[in-house]
Amino acid sequence: MSMKVHIADFSSDYHRQARKLRAEVLRKPLGLPANDPAFNDRKEDVHFVALSREKVVGIVVLVPDYKPIVGKLRQMATAEEVRGEGYGIELVKALEDYAANNGLTSIVLHSRHYAVGFYEKLGYKVTSDVFQEVGMDHFVMEKSL
Ligand SMILES: CC(C)(COP(=O)(O)OP(=O)(O)OC[C@H]1O[C@@H](n2cnc3c(N)ncnc32)[C@H](O)[C@@H]1OP(=O)(O)O)[C@@H](O)C(=O)NCCC(=O)NCCS
Q1: Residue 104 dihedral angles phi and psi, to the nearest 5°
Q2: What does the DSSP 8-state code read for residue 124?
Q3: Residue 38, burial from CB neighbour count under 10 angstroms (0-12, 13-18, 19+)
Q4: pLDDT of 1
Q5: What is the model's pLDDT at position 123?
Q6: In this structure, is residue 10 part of a structural domain?
C-alpha cells in the first residue's frame, strides 16, 4: 500500500475530490444534499487528504481557530474500498502533528455514535452526554496533544 497524506489547497483538484468523497460518505447516507451552505468550507480550515495513486481516498478537516489553542476535527471520512487499511489513523495523526506544530494544545470533535471506537483508538475521550446532530446520536470527544 502506498499511502500519502497531503494538505489540499483550497479549491484545488484534491479539495474538489475531497468534497465529493465527503458528500458520498457523510451526506448521501443521511439524505443530505451535496450543495448547501452548511457544507461550505472556509479558506482558514486545513484540508488533509489521503491519496492512493493520486486519488483522494480519505479526508479530515482541522478548524484551527475553533477556540483559542483548541482545534476542531471535522469531516472525517475514508472511501469504503480502503477502510481498515490505516488511512483514517494516518489522517488524524497528520492533523494532530500540524495542530501541535501550530500552537494548539487540544482537539475537540463531534463523533457519530458508531465512530466513537475509532477515535478511542486514537486516545480521544467522550466528554459529553449524547446529543443530536444531523438527526443522529453524537458525542463530544476530546484529546490533549
Ligand atoms: C471511521 C472511519 C473514518 C475509519 O477510517 P478507516 O480508514 O477504516 O480507519 P483505519 O483503517 O485507520 O482504522 C484504524 C483502526 O480503527 C478501527 N476502526 C475503524 N472504524 C471503527 C469504528 N467505527 N469503531 C471502532 N473501531 C473502528 C479499525 O478497525 C482499525 O483498528 P486496528 O488498527 O486495530 O485494525 C471510516 O470507517 C469512515 O469513513 N466511516 C464512515 C464515516 C464516518 O463515520 N466518519 C466519522 C464521523 S464522526
Answers
A1: -85, 145
A2: -
A3: exposed
A4: 53
A5: 98
A6: yes
**Domain tally, the chain:** 1
Nearest to 107 by CA among 73, 84, 77: 73
Q: Show the domain range for 72.
A: 4-104
**pTM for the model:** 0.96
- CATH label of the domain that carries residue 40: 3.40.630.30
Question: Average pLDDT, stretch 8-25?
Answer: 94
Closest ligand 1 atom, residue 90 Cα: 12
51 lines ligand 1 (CB under 6 A): no
Would residue 129 count as lying in a domain?
Answer: no
- DSSP secondary structure of 42-61: -TTSEEEEEEETTEEEEEEE
Q: Is the CB of 75 under 6 A from ligand 1?
A: no
Q: What is the pLDDT of residue 131?
A: 98
